[in-house]
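User: Hi! I'm a student and our assignment asks us to look at how structure tokens line up with a sequence. Could you show me two examples?

Assistant: Happy to help. In each example below, the sequence comes first and the structure tokens follow. Example one:
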Amino acid sequence: MNDKEVLEAALFAAGEPLDAKELATLVGKPPEYVSELLKSLIEEYKTRETSLELVETGERYVMQVKPAYAEKVRSIAPREFETPVLRTLAVIAYHQPVTQAEVVSIRGNKAYSHVVALEERELIKSVPHRRTKMLTITPTFVEYFGIETNDPKLIRKMIEKVAKGQISA
């Protein structure tokens, strides 16, 4: 069992993005060493004929199903977010930049906990804005949903098309 295999197993088992520091503790090596191993593993996955890929999202790494296979397995995949949280995320993505107070006005008081969950997953970021927070999506959001842009206008148009059933979510 080598370090690269341990990292691969950890990313598969985690099912969520992990950073090099977290993974370094598993192999007892410095994060820089782990980052280099992960970069080589990413390249290996690009050459393999497999339905999985290893992706670097900012400073985190995640193993996921390639987009070409995602639709085929969506019905049996576990849901990562409950519908209300996804709806809150859609409101933020559609209206960004948007204050937390506006989101709560649209989605209700449960949106506060939704915002916390979305921040923990690094799908949104918040910055203090007067007595509330200003919310926007992150590059992790763009990568997670396989969107080619982080332009708010284009994301808004895409959300409108999904809502009208013109494209699948």
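Example two works the same way, sequence first and then tokens:
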Amino acid sequence: MAGETEFAMGATASCADGPGGTVSRLIIDPATETVTHLVIEPKHRLGVGRLVPLDLVDTTAGDIRLRCTVEEFGGLEPAQETELIDDAGDLGLGGLNAPMGVISPVQAILQDTVPLGEADVERGDPVHALDGEIGRVQGLLVDPDDHRVTHVLLQEGHLWGRKNVSIPVSAVTGVENGIRLSLTKRQVEDLPPAG
């Protein structure tokens, strides 16, 4: 696993000319098992996170550097979009029974953006073995040449107290609503510890 790139949630990414932010989500194409984008949240959550295509990402010695300036980073596709929800139906306000002049409350909800046909993996997403949940996602190991995911990293503090467990992607059967495995808890426990 020495040649692989680790994309850990919470890792810091810097732009060519200044700060970028932290990795909050990874976007993967389930059909090809490749990472297509990193979602980078600006420092201190000032501004909206951005979808950063993997071809703008350099990794060396654990550092994530973006091949774009701070200004170019700000021009990338937003990783969240605002959706307005009309609460009138839920609260029984508005409609025919509303007195004149009553304004229906509208709520703004921030939704994560995921490109069509792709899925996102977030820190803390559950990892499900065949016989139940075994832990939470910490990050992914990715082949630097073709961006294919090779392993899923389990967050510290899972069932066995071992610091690092990496699960081969061949054991992953799905990434909707958490990561699903074709292994039992025991089989995951028997995997060799990650370096």
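Here is something you could point out in your write-up. Residues 5-74 form a domain with the Photosynthetic Reaction Center; Chain H, domain 2 fold (CATH 3.90.50.10).
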